[in-house]
Amino acid sequence: METIAIPAIKMSVIAPEIILSVVAMVLLLVNVFVKGEQKGYLGILSILGILVTIYVCVTGWGNPVEGFSGSIVQDNFGIFFKVIFLVVSAMSILIVDQYIVREDCNYGEIYPLMLFATVGMMLMAAGTDLMTIFLGLEVLSVSLYVLAGFNRNSLKSNEAGLKYFLLGAFSTGFLLYGIALTYGATGTTNVPKIAEFIAGNGGVTSSYMLLAGVLLMATGFAFKVAAAPFHMWTPDVYEGAPTPITAFMSVGPKAAGFAAFLRVFMIALPAFKAEWAGMLWVLAVLTMTIGNVTALYQQNIKRMLAYSSIAHAGYLLVGFTAASAVGTAGIMFYMLSYAFMNIGAFAVVILIAKKGEVNSNVSDFAGLGYKHPFLGVVMSIFLFSLAGIPPAAGFVGKFYLFSGAVQAGYIWLAVIGVLNSAVSVYYYLRVMVYMYFKDPTEDFAWVKLTPVFVICLIIAVAGVLVPGVLPGVILDLAHKAVLM
User: Fold this and answer.
1) With 0-12 CB in 10 A as exposed, 13-18 as middle and 19+ as buried, what is 310?
2) Which residue of 204, 252, 470, 481 is most buried, as measured by CB atoms within 10 A?
3) 8-state DSSP, 242
């Protein structure tokens, strides 16, 4: 009688995901017994769960382990991105409590939903099988659909949730169809085994089925990272979603999309590098240019930051196009830096907005630098970093991304990236002009700087300035995590 070998499961590989999932499920139960005015305690429990998860993640550094028949891995690359996701989640939770109380949407489900979304991101970063990556994507996407429409009292939030659901489901179809065609052409969904099959069958690189699968998967990933021309959902969803969720969505899912994008294309499809590098070159130019040019004439600060987010996806695609150690390390460094600067900027937007988010135009920042000097200074730091002005971390990140492109021979791509970065300075400085050179139209008496918000802003400022002045440690860790 033939014996069936049961593969080693190795639950330790997904220990961080298990811990965070258990915390989220406990929060769902605790939420039933906690009164409305005490929902903030759920945020504290969430932060504690995230800190424990970060500790478990970093203990695996330098010790790669596979599990579940090679469909998921604990390696430096995944751990680096997992820490980014957990930092994004923690900072978003810090700024969510004051918002949901002000907007009368104090529903405790927001915390477990954010944790479940983070679990999905972690699965995407650690997945070494296309189906594992797809599973993580669905866990992330379903959570985000609900979070985008979380403010039931706001028609804009309802609209954002519906738009994101419809377009997200559409893009998921592209990704899944691409996975199906790739499986049909190679006979496997395991990322390293796809590379082995292609290497052992040289003629498969001319297979129309595989080429179509690669193109469709690229389309699905491009939607998730908000790359042009698949970016059309971004400004409406970012504007309509609750601002803390917008901050969360603008960094976490983008980082998860790039993590999966990098692992699939760098590991499984190096034989197609010439084809997909040319495609990414075009996507990078389109994304940077459309994002920056459209941001120039936006009056709503959330829409401006949405188009800014699209432009930053373009900068990250520059590093991806290089497909080198420098470019990939630049992507990881920039994603971590971007988490601090972008969430910090959205935190200030939350503070100055009134109930109903009716005070969210660029002109509403008039006089903020004088009425609230602390907020004016920290917002300026975040905007300088977003613009790529030294000594902020945004400058170092862009320098590495563009250096990777130059070293790989994509000099004109780097030049276009620098020019786009110069264009972006205008709309970032426009906010500072209103803060310091326009007479205030409001007294900002409603702005309440709670200790939690101050802590969040200080962490964000430190996350922008310290890596900008002393980037060596993080860059060294990023290089050790590169998929090469």
Assistant:
1) buried
2) 252
3) -
